[in-house]
Specification:
The chain has helices at 19-22, 35-41, 58-66, 82-91, 108-116; strands spanning 4-8, 28-32, 48-51, 70-73, 97-101, 128-132, 135-140, 146-148, 155-160, 165-171, 180-182, 192-193, 199-202, 208-213. With 222 residues, the protein is an alpha/beta fold. The chain folds into two domains: 1-133, Thiamin pyrophosphokinase, catalytic domain (Rossmann fold, 3-Layer(aba) Sandwich), CATH 3.40.50.10240; 134-222, Thiamin pyrophosphokinase, thiamin-binding domain (Jelly Rolls, Sandwich).
Length: 222
């Protein structure tokens, strides 16, 4: 397929990240285990549910089966989270883009793991965005000119993970970087601002987490 896959996880969904406001009719919709309940609360039916189903009741599963949702059950004793399993499944459909909702909030261990999950090399060629309220999170890898989705006045933070990020060049930000280095474990890249209609960032080595905080409203950011 081509197009967008939306994955709804089992985390906390901010009111302005309600799936009904983000899901398009043409999206392939995947629930990672308990994300299926969040979809039901928004009157949405997933195409697939992936996970060990420890967050779903027998009644939940019966309702999903009655709606002819395809269920992919995995053992509870497994080495991957339900979200990681859902991402693997999404990639099998060769999407142009993946949007992940309700993957943050609640448990810090799950939130951190979900953000760092973006660093897995096998899916770096597919744009993946975590959405949490008015914030969007992407991973920026080398040799990818990342277009920042936002508008003038939005906050942008660039945070190196794993090691330093070298050859960092930005356009359209108030405090620009020109082939510079952001050291791992420092906060130099935090709280920049978009000042142009288009903004971008590219790096030569390392990995950057890019967090955009939209200071207005979600509709204009996707």
């Amino acid at each position: 397929m081509s197009g967008r896959v939306v994955i709804v996880a089992n985390g906390v969904s901010a009111s302005d990240t309600a799936p009904a406001a983000w899901v398009r009719q043409e999206d392939l919709l995947i629930a990672a285990d308990g994300g299926a309940r969040l979809l039901r609360e928004n009157d949405l039916v997933p195409d697939y549910v992936i996970g060990d189903f420890d967050s779903l009741t027998a009644m939940d599963l019966a309702q999903l089966e009655a709606s002819e949702v395809q269920l992919h059950r995995h053992p509870v004793d497994k080495d991957q989270t339900d979200l990681e399993l859902a991402l693997h499944f999404a990639l099998e459909h060769k999407p142009d883009e993946i949007l992940i909702l309700a993957a943050l909030g609640g448990r810090w261990d799950q939130s951190l793991a979900n953000i760092l999950l973006l660093a897995k090399p096998m899916w770096r060629d597919v744009p993946i965005t975590l959405v949490d309220g008015l914030q969007r999170i992407n991973l920026i890898a080398p040799n990818h000119d990342h277009q920042i989705v936002g508008k003038s006045g939005d906050t942008v933070s660039l945070i190196p993970i794993g090691k330093k990020a070298s050859g960092v060049t930005t356009h359209g930000l108030q405090w620009g970087l020109d082939d510079e280095t952001l050291e791992f474990g420092t906060t130099r890249g935090v709280s920049n601002l978009i000042i142009a209609t288009k903004a971008s960032v590219a790096i030569r080595e390392g990995l950057l987490v890019c967090v955009v905080s939209n200071n207005q409203h979600v509709e204009e950011t996707y």
